[in-house]
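EI: anyone free to look at a 551-residue chain?
SC: sure, send it
EI:
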Amino acid sequence: MSYNPAHRFKPGRLFITCIDAENIRGRADNSNEDTLTPHLLFKLPTTGIDVPIRQSRIGAIKGYNVAFGREVVSIDIANPEQLLVNGDISLIVQLRDGLKGLIAQCNASITEVLLTPGVETARSLSVLTPGDTSTNSTVNLAFNFVKANPGLLKLDLSTFKNCVENSSKRYISVSTPDGQSKTSSLADRSSLEGGFSFWVDDRNWFGQIDVEIHEEGGDQEIIGECKLVIIDCFKGGDGEMISSTISMAWDRRMNIHTPSISLRHCFLAAGIVRVKCIDANGVGDAAHPRVVIKAAGRTHMTKKPTLATTSSLLWDNELEIPVVSESSLTIKFGDFDQVTGEFESLGSSDLTLLPLYKSSNIDVSVNLKHQNELGEMIDVGKIQLALQFVFQGPTKVAFPRDQGTVQSYIPGDSETITELANNDAPGFSEFAIKQAFDKIDLDKNGYIGAAELRHCLVCMGEHVAEAEIDMMISMLDLNGDGQVSFWSFKAMVESPDPANDDFSYLYVPTRAERDKCNNNMQEVFSTYVQFHSITKADVLRAWDALRRSAL
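SC: here you go
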């Protein structure tokens, strides 16, 4: 199959199941084939690239047929597109003998296998003996490619607590090849069960996670250790917790007889945020302007602008940023030193991803701030970003994942998934309403203002204009001070139709308003008395008549 540019190869691990070989002959004039001790060898026919060569164990010979016992051989492919030769990626399969060398070989295309990860493909390959032009000899294999997706790897290490005595005095540390590390006491069960999460991508896919058990104290003496192959954790389904049995090496003095341990892990596949910088205005005169976006501890930088003027910059390249649990991105603009590789930030801003997760596509204008020499945050210009989110992985997955503090959304789906409230509840108690009010009342002054409402709406993924926020506040702001009291908030929550309800009955006049009202009443009463020439005697007679009628 020829390479179609519309397809995009991904790194991963190729698994080859060695089944058997049929009608194998050592040489055309050799009748002693039963003396063969064959094995299979696999290699990629590409020069100038460091590619692995793998071979199977020696198969069992039975006449002309060889059984390999379904042994699995794996090859890590980090840069598949570099392996393209004449539009195809092929694998050299050789049947070799320990004494006689090459017995037969063939080239097998693996392009289709790499483009259909997770699908096992059985192949019966015709192999040629050197010097022959035709053959009926075959090697039977099965191929399966596991794609190395970026994402979040979560480890459950609670089983380590059960195999070590005095766990309160022992610690477990976990580190990845790219420098991520975490440490916890073996007595901290909650941390062992869900506190170890690591970002995985092309920096550490083909490496191993080091797990070490060590003693309490400054010397950090290691008493046990093991290694977990990262790409092996991709075998389960997305979000599925699976177990792997790994070998343990213990200090002999510990007298621990646990040669292996079962470790549970779960992989959460990432979604992709595609960011395109349309233009930048008012950003100064940086020599080598760049836009940098940070997420998941990774830094992504644009190329140099395609057009730069004294007032604006234009880009045409696009960044692909994998995200899992991230609810925001950090955007920076600055000057990139091409000699030292250092980046000097001239302005930055945080951008929430929740509106993007909800709608799948938004355009935003980001105001960058920079701290000057006086410590003041000043505007440095605007970068116009067009952001598009594309989810690569299982459908119907809500983002951000593994988050309990903000709402999650299925990209492009009108229905939202929330972990913050029970929308099926028939009603809310006053205590629950007060709790919700207190979460929005950030400054704890007993009122909700426009800034507090705006902050909470952003955390819920709502991209709301200033005018809309003012309108929401005005619904319950009956005295015009720009604040919403708890009782107004409670009435709105309990209202069956808050959008059309009239909350004017909640109006409580301020003291100044009451005093003004009393003064107005006195003026009206005084004018009435003067106009009708009412005397004190008239008032006393009226009062006496009213008293008698009440008896």
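EI: Residues 511-532 form the longest helix (22 residues).
SC: 👍
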